[in-house]
Design brief:
The chain is 34% helix and 14% strand. The protein is α/β, with parallel strands linked by helices. Strand 7, helix 10 and strand 8 form a beta-alpha-beta unit. The radius of gyration is 17 Å and the shape is globular.
C-alpha cells in the first residue's frame, strides 16, 4: 500500500527574482486542495504527514564559493526526509513523496541506499546533470539533482553520511529531456539508459517503460518532475520547455512504471503560476491514475 508524504521544500531552486521565494513549497497543499490526497486515501493509502523544510533564504550575495543555495537547511531536510521515507519502506509500504523541488531526490536516495540500494527511473524535462565538473554555475540542487544522486557533485551534497552514490549510474535511467539539453551527451555516456521526450512520443510509452524498467533492474525509485509535460499542457513550472509529453503519454508511462517502483517523488509544480488551480487538478488526475498501482509488484 501507499503512504503519502508531503515534502514542501523549495531550497534547491534559485529565486524567481532577487529577494523572492520559489512557489514550489506550496505544491503539496495545492495538490491536497485539488483532491490528489483524497484520490489515494479513498483507495486505502495512508497520509504520513509532512516533513517541513527550513526557511528559504536568497543567499546569492553571501554564499561562499563551492556551496549550493541554502546548503545547511538542504542537508538537514534531506536527512529528515530520508528518515521518514525509510520508516515507510521498513513498514513494507510504498512512499509517495509530494514535493517540493527536485532536490528531494537526495533524501529519497539516502533512504534507499541505507536499505541496500535500488535502481532509479528519473522522468524530467531536463537531465538535471549540471555539476562542478561541467559548470561554474552550480548552486541550485534542483537543476543538479540527478548528478548528485549518482555521485557527481560536491561531497556535501552527493556524499551525505558517506553514502555516495545514492543510486548506481549503471542502474539509473532517464526519460524526458528535450533535444537541446546541454548535458545529454554526458548523461548518455554514464547512465544505463537515456530516452528523450521525442522518443516517447514516437515509440509509445509502453515500449519505453519496458526498456527503462529493465535498465533500472526491475526495482527502483521513481522520480517525476512535472516539467516533462509540454508547456501547452503544464506551464506552472519554473523552467517550461517545448517538446514535452502530453497528459495521456505521461499517464501511460506512469501506469507502466509504477508497479515495480518501491516509491516515488513528485516535484517542481509551482502553484504561484496556477492561480485558479486548473493545473493542480490536471496533475491530480494524471498522478491519481498513473500511480494508483505504485509498489504493487516491487520485490526485495
Amino acid at each position: 500500500m501507499i503512504t503519502l508524504l508531503s515534502a514542501p521544500s523549495n531550497l534547491g531552486l534559485r529565486p524567481p527574482e532577487p529577494g523572492s521565494v520559489p512557489g514550489s513549497a506550496k505544491a503539496p497543499e495545492a495538490f491536497r486542495e485539488a483532491g490528489l490526497f483524497r484520490r489515494f486515501t479513498d483507495r486505502g493509502a495512508s497520509d504520513g504527514g509532512i516533513v517541513l523544510a527550513g526557511r528559504y533564504v536568497d543567499d546569492d550575495a553571501t554564499r561562499p564559493a563551492g556551496r549550493v543555495r541554502n546548503e545547511a537547511a538542504f542537508v538537514d531536510h534531506s536527512l529528515r526526509l530520508a528518515a521518514r521515507i525509510g520508516e515507510v519502506l521498513d513498514e513494507g509500504r510504498a512512499p509517495l513523496v509530494i514535493g517540493g523541488d527536485c532536490g528531494i531526490l537526495v533524501g529519497a536516495g539516502i533512504a534507499v541506499k541505507r536499505r541496500g540500494g535500488a535502481g532509479l527511473v528519473h522522468i524530467d524535462g531536463h537531465t538535471d546533470f549540471r555539476h562542478p565538473g561541467n559548470s561554474d554555475e552550480c548552486a541550485s540542487v534542483a537543476g543538479e539533482a540527478l548528478a548528485a544522486a549518482v555521485g557527481e557533485h560536491w561531497p556535501a551534497i552527493a556524499d551525505i553520511d558517506g553514502l555516495a552514490p545514492y543510486f548506481s549510474a549503471t542502474r539509473t535511467a532517464h526519460i524526458g529531456h528535450r533535444d537541446d539539453d546541454e548535458e545529454q551527451a554526458e548523461v548518455r555516456g554514464l547512465l544505463a539508459r537515456v530516452t528523450p521526450a521525442a522518443d516517447v512520443l514516437a515509440r509509445g510509452a509502453d515500449a519505453v517503460a519496458a526498456e527503462t524498467a529493465a535498465s533500472a533492474g526491475g526495482r527502483y525509485w521513481l522520480q517525476l518532475d512535472v516539467d516533462v509535460l509540454d508547456p501547452s499542457v503544464m506551464p506552472a513550472v519554473d523552467s517550461p520547455d517545448p517538446g514535452g509529453l502530453g497528459a495521456a503519454e505521461l499517464t501511460a508511462l506512469l501506469r507502466a512504471l509504477a508497479p515495480q517502483a518501491i516509491g516515488a517523488s513528485i516535484t517542481v509544480f509551482d502553484p504561484d503560476l496556477d492561480p485558479d488551480g486548473r493545473y493542480a487538478r490536471l496533475l491530480a488526475e494524471v498522478l491519481g491514475d498513473g500511480l494508483r498501482e505504485l509498489g504493487s509488484e516491487a520485490r526485495d
